[in-house]
Amino acid sequence: MPGRKPDKSRTFIILAIVACIVVAGIVWVYLSTRNIATTDDAQVDGDAVVIAPKVAGYVVTLAIHDNQPVKAGDLLLKIDPRDYIAARDRAEAALALANAQLDTARVNLKMAKVTAPAKLAQAKSQMEQAAANRDLAAANEKRQTNLNVKATTQQARDQAASQLRSAAASLADSRAQVDIAGLVNETIAQAEAQVEAAAAQVRQAQAELAAANLNLAYTELRAPQDGRVTMRNVNLGSYVQAGQSLFSLVNGNVWITANFKESQLDRMRVGQKVEIRVDAYRSLDLRGHVDGIQGGTGSRFSAFPAENATGNFVKIVQRVPVKIVIDSGLDPKLPLPLGASADPRVELQ
Hints:
Elements: H1 4-33, E1 36-38, E2 42-51, E3 57-62, E4 69-70, E5 75-79, H2 82-146, H3 154-181, H4 184-217, E6 220-222, E7 227-230, E8 239-240, E9 247-261, E10 273-278, E11 286-293, E12 319-328, E13 342-347
Antiparallel strand pairs: 1-13, 2-9, 3-5, 3-8, 4-7, 5-6, 7-9, 9-12, 10-11, 10-13, 11-12
Helix pairs in contact: 2-3, 2-4
């Protein structure tokens, strides 16, 4: 019995030491992590350009394969161009015809500026001649009327009267021709309008030719930027539609999208340093900084945002996407796949 007291003392001392170690560990963990914000809800993001044709047709050349690196301007695939070559040839013929019609309209305008005043002068001259003929016929008819019946014949009188009516009709017709020929300005304006209409047809034909050339150029799809071919779903001989997604080009511009809890944003600021680990390549020591905090939670911008006022409300801690730009540590030989998991550690201030 007397020997048990030392055992209890040793046990108490051991428990006290363990408690101190635990407390010290808790304090150390707290002190070392109180200025660190972490999350495992993070992934690699980047620029991915969807390649889609602007024209439809059969693929006659396929110059890429899955995960192939390409440079900006490289030929990716080619669509059968024969239909678009024929459309371009039709547009060129239509433009040539429109140019010919424009040339004709311009010649007609020049002729109208010369012939319209000449026709007016000619019509006036003919009217003067008709007036003189009418006056002569009137004098002859008056002379036949004033002659003694024995000095002329009824046939001569009738002929003089007929000549007077004919001369009067010719004068009236000449006056009408003068009125018609008098529309010199209107005739020239009509010719100018025809020139403008022909010029508009030329511009339309030029636009159609430009569109045909564009469509022909669109039969060749070239890389808009450097990148790697991803998610290819087109093969040689496939029929593709305009706007159809064929594959994507992923370039080296990547960043981290980390979905932090809303309770972790109190001290998070743009520019704070970040340590990053990615599951794909644990050996990479990535360093970056906070580039921006999204102006809303993911649920707020979803296709069907939560409507908390429609029923019983259960509070759920929301997550806010934070963009983290990688400053150093990337290895060109180890490209980060988009969507790969990441573990960022933000140094809070």
